[in-house]
Design goal:
about 270 residues
Length: about 270
């Protein structure tokens, strides 16, 4: 499928049918890319217009075969777990994408939405003027809560300190305590050779794996010394291995092998 460069809007995970329902209820127009494994790693691509799938293609990454249109939707509709990247498109972008992908049209596939609501619950909603949250809204609340767990932890810490009348030490006091225990230390100077090595690794990851590898690139960029790089090797390897949902496994393994050769250490 030919698609222009787009900005990722959000990521959804779960049953493909549930993601279809979310797109339908929100009258979504744009591009959805789905990673899944059914026999072999596969990539599904769907174009939606006002919540309806109008273009679809499924590509098998190992056998390099593909199916399109209604057959592609049928391949996807019963999947129990997928990772879906969602990209919003403008009307003009949508028109161009449809023009560039003639032959991949979806003609018969329909989105089946479960509209059953218990009569009692529905009556209460109407009586008190309550609008039940959409599925995507519930998932967003859960995801945001998990992502902000460190924030909530900090609030709890602050409340505990206040409860027992404990004064939080100032930054300089913390530094003094660390210095007394470990002794004075000098900040490690960033060497030009290390900066060159880091730039080479970032270039290798970015040029071979693209924007999907942003997490791994950010970890590399955060390293201030070779020691940092070695200590973060496992995290870099884990971030790269997670890309096999979207990128051929062989390609990821080649990048990992090249990085290991450069730093002289296994990262997975």
């Amino acid at each position: 499928m030919i698609v222009p460069k787009l900005t990722l809007t959000k990521v959804e995970k779960g049953k493909f049918q549930e993601i279809l329902e979310i797109m339908s209820k929100s009258k979504f127009s744009g591009y959805v890319r789905v990673g899944f494994k059914k026999g072999e790693m596969s990539l599904g691509e769907i174009i939606f217009e006002n919540g309806k799938p109008i273009i679809a293609e499924v590509s098998k990454l190992k056998s390099k075969t593909s199916i399109s249109g209604d057959a592609a939707i049928r391949e996807l509709e019963n999947l129990e777990y997928v990772v879906a990247e969602i990209y919003t498109m403008t009307t003009d972008q949508l028109r161009k994408v449809v023009e560039m992908n003639r032959g991949l049209e979806v003609k018969e596939a329909k989105v089946e939405i479960d509209t059953k609501v218990k009569p009692e619950k529905k009556a209460l909603y109407e009586k008190y003027g309550i609008k039940p949250p959409e599925e995507w809204e519930i998932q967003k609340i859960i995801r945001d809560s998990l992502e902000n767990s460190e924030f909530f932890s900090e609030i709890e810490k602050h409340d505990s300190l206040a409860k027992y009348g404990i004064k939080r030490p100032r930054e300089e006091e913390i530094d003094a305590i660390i210095s007394n225990v470990l002794g004075e230390y000098e900040e490690e100077e960033i060497k030009p050779e290390f900066e060159a090595l880091k730039a080479e690794i970032v270039e290798t990851i970015s040029s071979r794996l693209g924007k999907a590898a942003k997490k791994a690139v950010d970890i590399v960029k955060s390293c201030k010394s070779e020691r940092d790089l070695i200590q973060n090797a496992g995290a870099i390897g884990k971030a790269l291995k997670s890309l096999t949902v979207f990128v051929p496994k062989k390609k990821v393994e080649e990048v990992i092998a090249e990085i290991e050769k450069r730093i002289g250490q296994k990262i997975v």
